[in-house]
Design goal:
By secondary structure, the protein is α/β, with parallel strands linked by helices. Helix content is 34%, strand content 21%. It has helices at residues 30-39, 56-66, 104-110, 116-119, 131-142, 181-187, 193-204, 243-256, 261-275, 289-302, and strands spanning 4-7, 11-16, 22-28, 45-52, 73-76, 81-87, 93-97, 123-126, 149-152, 176-177, 207-211, 217-220, 227-230, 304-305. The strands form 2 sheets. Strands 5-4-1-8-9-10-11-12-13-14 form a 10-stranded mixed sheet, sandwiched between helices. Helix 2 links the parallel strand 4 (45-52) and strand 5. One of its GO terms (molecular function) is ribokinase activity.
């Protein structure tokens, strides 16, 4: 049974790290990295996306071998989304579509409707995709009679019209919104990150999370505005590609399991720690129950409340 579904782009990535290391033709994309992050904690994870014809069969096979359902992946026209991922530092990176790539926004149209078996999932993560598609998915999924858990992440790269996110009414459809601090500052330019998170968490009754990279994340609970810092877990960092997406997958798996927002963030932090220790989503270790519990306990011990307003469990 499919319990958690990620919706978004699959990519074929040529990754160039700041130290000059190159990894070519790596299966990636927000839909895949978030599915891997969720699968660390949850069985029954599926992906709704499309893959380019040259990569379709191999991509689906490798995803299925990982234990993630690939029946929601269709074959698109052309090569699919092919990206250069350029890491200029440990913090700054950019995605550049290759000349041979399909149009990113066009892939949203080719994805089509959810498979029937996915429509009954208890939780969905809207991974990075075109803004119009992200907002449309939030509205469609939010109107389902089953009232599933909905989480959403975004992109603000140069090939994305990120101004479409300025009006935040779409948050009313979501359970949790998980952009990065850099994206929040680039799009909404708040004078105070903490105040922005609290105001919108209360106004839209949506858990608000700011991903801070190596500094962890800020978690703001819906309705109460209770703000908590969840630190990153020290890890043997190899490649930070997909770290934020893996975090989102762990977070939505926590929501599906009925955890508190802070508990979800702790699980998300563990997922991200495994993502950065590998190069490529499908190279990520699938930890044992004891291994991930040990990491979870380390994160939980370092959690720091920043403001009152609600209980933390």
């Amino acid at each position: 049974m499919i319990n958690v579904v990620t919706i978004g782009w699959l990519t074929t990535d040529d990754i160039i790290l700041a130290n000059g290391t190159c990894s070519m033709a790596v299966q990636g994309g927000g839909a895949l990295y978030s599915a891997v992050g969720a699968h660390i904690w949850s069985e029954g994870v599926g992906i709704h996306s499309v893959a380019g014809k040259p990569y379709f069969a191999q991509t689906c096979r490798l995803i299925e071998e990982r234990g993630i359902d690939a029946s929601g992946i269709g074959q698109c026209q052309g090569n699919g989304l092919e990206l250069w991922l350029l890491h200029e530092s440990d913090i700054h990176k950019q995605q550049v579509p290759k000349l041979s790539s399909s149009d990113a926004l066009g892939l949203d149209e080719q994805r089509g409707p959810l498979p029937e078996s996915y429509a009954r999932a208890s939780a969905f993560h809207i991974a990075p995709q075109g803004p119009a598609s992200s907002i449309s998915n939030a509205k469609k999924l939010g109107s389902l009679k089953t009232k599933p858990i909905l989480a959403m992440d975004i992109l603000s790269d140069n090939f994305i019209e990120s101004s479409m996110y300025l009006e935040l009414d779409f948050l009313s459809h979501l359970t949790a919104f998980l952009p990065s601090q850099a994206e929040i500052e680039r799009i909404w330019q708040p004078s105070s990150l903490e105040s922005w998170l609290q105001e919108n968490a209360i106004r839209y009754k949506c858990h608000m999370v700011a991903k801070l990279g190596a500094r962890g994340s800020l978690v703001c609970e819906a309705r109460t505005g209770t703000l908590t810092h969840v630190p990153a877990l020290p890890a043997n960092v190899r490649d930070t590609t997909g770290a934020g997406d893996g975090y989102c997958g762990g977070f939505v798996a926590g929501l599906a399991a009925g955890k508190s927002p802070v508990g979800c963030a702790a699980m998300a932090t563990v997922s991200s720690s495994y993502i950065v220790e590998a190069s490529g989503a499908l190279a990520t270790k699938q930890p044992t129950a004891d291994e991930k519990l040990t990491r979870l306990q380390i994160v939980e011990a370092a959690i720091r409340p920043l403001s009152s307003g609600g209980s933390r469990s």
